[in-house]
C-alpha cells in the first residue's frame, strides 16, 4: 500500500498529471494514514519517543513542499524541529533533579541542557482518557484563559494545514508581581503516532504580531507535551510536559526556577478541575 502511494505521489510530477485536482494532496494524506496504520502498539517510553521522532521526520519530508508556500513550509519545519529537539531532551534520562513532588504523585524535575539552558519536566497522571486531554489542550486551546489563571489569553494567529498553528499567548503576572507581563509568539504542532500524542512548539517570528508596549516578549522552546495512556489503565493518561522558557528581562535565577516549577504544578491542578467540570465533545485521539 505504501509503495503504491509513493508511486501515486511521484506521478504528480509528470506534466500530464500536474492538473489533476487534489491528487498530490490525497497522496500525502494517504501516506500519513499508512504510517499511522503501521504504528507499534503499547511501546516502551524510549520506543515511543523514537517512534514519534522517526515518523515526524517522514511526514516533514519534501512531499509537503508541494502543498504550502515557502513561509508556511518554514513554519512547519520549525515546528518539526521543536518536536525533534524536545523529544531528544526527554529521551535522555540522565541529569534530572527533582524540584518538587506533590502528595498526589505530581512531580517537577529539572536539568541544564547545553545550548538550551535550564528545562523543567512535569510528570502527572490524569484520570481522563488521552483524547479528552487532546481536545482541551489543542482543539480548545484558545479557551485556556478561562481555566488557567497563569494565562490571560491565547489566540491562533495562523493555521497551517491541520497540525501546525502560529499562536500569541499573553501570560498573567505572577503572584506578588515577581514577574511582570510577558507574551509569546510561537509555532506549535501536534502529532499522533500509535498510542501517543505529542504537542510541541518554540518561539517564532510573525510579522503581523509585533512586540506590544508595556509587555516583554519572552520566548518558548523547544517545549512539548507528551500524552499516552497509562499502562494497564487506558482510561487514564500520563502527561509529560517539557518546559523551556527565556523570560527575558532581568530576573534572579532563584525567582525564575520558583515561578516555572510552580507554574507547572498549578497547570496540572487547573487542568484536572477543567476536565472534571467541562463537558467533552467527540475526541480526536
Summarize this structure as a short list of keywords or feature phrases.
285 residues, alpha+beta, ten-stranded mixed β-sheet, two-stranded antiparallel sheet, 6 helices, 34% helix, globular, disordered N terminus
Account of the protein in words:
Helix content is 34%, strand content 30%. The protein is built from six helices and twelve strands. 31% of the residues are buried. Residues 67-280 form the START domain. Pathway: Steroid metabolism; cholesterol metabolism. It comes from Galeopterus variegatus (Malayan flying lemur).
Topology:
Elements: H1 2-11, H2 23-37, H3 45-59, H4 70-91, E1 97-101, E2 107-113, E3 117-126, H5 130-139, E4 151-160, E5 164-171, E6 182-193, E7 196-203, E8 216-217, E9 219-220, E10 223-230, E11 233-243, E12 245-246, H6 253-277
Helix pairs in contact: 1-2, 3-4
Pfam families: START
Subunit structure: May interact with TSPO.
Domain START: 67-280
Amino acid at each position: 500500500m505504501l509503495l503504491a502511494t509513493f508511486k501515486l505521489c511521484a506521478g504528480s510530477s509528470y506534466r500530464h498529471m500536474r492538473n489533476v485536482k487534489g491528487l498530490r494532496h490525497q497522496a500525502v494524506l494517504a501516506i500519513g494514514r499508512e504510517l499511522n496504520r503501521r504504528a507499534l502498539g503499547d511501546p516502551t517510553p524510549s520506543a515511543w519517543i523514537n517512534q514519534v521522532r522517526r515518523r515526524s521526520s517522514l511526514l516533514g519530508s519534501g512531499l509537503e513542499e508541494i502543498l504550502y508556500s515557502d513561509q508556511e513550509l518554514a513554519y512547519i519545519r520549525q515546528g518539526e524541529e521543536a518536536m525533534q529537539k524536545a523529544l531528544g531532551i526527554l529521551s535522555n534520562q540522565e541529569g534530572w533533579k527533582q524540584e518538587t513532588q506533590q502528595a498526589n504523585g505530581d512531580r517537577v524535575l529539572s536539568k541544564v541542557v547545553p545550548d538550551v539552558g535550564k528545562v523543567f519536566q512535569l510528570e502527572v497522571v490524569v484520570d481522563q482518557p488521552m483524547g479528552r486531554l487532546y481536545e482541551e489542550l489543542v482543539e480548545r486551546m484558545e479557551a485556556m484563559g478561562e481555566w488557567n489563571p497563569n494565562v490571560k489569553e491565547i489566540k491562533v494567529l495562523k493555521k497551517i494545514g491541520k497540525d501546525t498553528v502560529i499562536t500569541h499567548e499573553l501570560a498573567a503576572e505572577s503572584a506578588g508581581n515577581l514577574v511582570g507581563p510577558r507574551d509569546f509568539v510561537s509555532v506549535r504542532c501536534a502529532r499522533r503516532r500509535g498510542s501517543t500524542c505529542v504537542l510541541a512548539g518554540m518561539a517564532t517570528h510573525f510579522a503581523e504580531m509585533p512586540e506590544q508596549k508595556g509587555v516583554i516578549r519572552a520566548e518558548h522552546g523547544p517545549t512539548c507535551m507528551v500524552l499516552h495512556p497509562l499502562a494497564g489503565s487506558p482510561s487514564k493518561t500520563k502527561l509529560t510536559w517539557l518546559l523551556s522558557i527565556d523570560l527575558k528581562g532581568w530576573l534572579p535565577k532563584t525567582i525564575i526556577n520558583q515561578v516555572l516549577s510552580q507554574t507547572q504544578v498549578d497547570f496540572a491542578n487547573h487542568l484536572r478541575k477543567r476536565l472534571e467540570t467541562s463537558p467533552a465533545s467527540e475526541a480526536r485521539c
